[in-house]
Design brief:
about 80 residues, alpha+beta, flat
Length: about 80
């Protein structure tokens, strides 16, 4: 019984955590940037429309993303948007 209660509490926590990542980036406009992170020891670079979009993706993935350069990345990594 305790395991069921724990599972329900963890599920509720997961739902509330995912709601925190619902950023409204519609008003942010387009200001392309190349963001980067390190995943499994590999550096990944992805192009985002604006900083808000990068922050939302970082929140959803529970990763730390930082601006690498202004404008689009020279080449997006295969892992982008996964």
């Amino acid at each position: 019984m305790k395991l069921i209660i724990l599972a329900v509490l963890l599920a509720m926590l997961g739902i509330s955590m995912s709601q925190v990542c619902n950023y409204d980036c519609t008003q942010s406009g387009i200001d392309y940037l190349c963001g980067k992170t390190v995943r499994n020891g590999r550096e990944i670079r992805c192009t985002y429309k604006n900083p808000c979009e990068m922050d939302q993706h970082a929140c959803q993935k529970r990763e730390e993303w930082k601006k690498d350069t202004t404008g689009r990345c020279t080449r997006d990594s295969d892992e982008c948007r996964r």
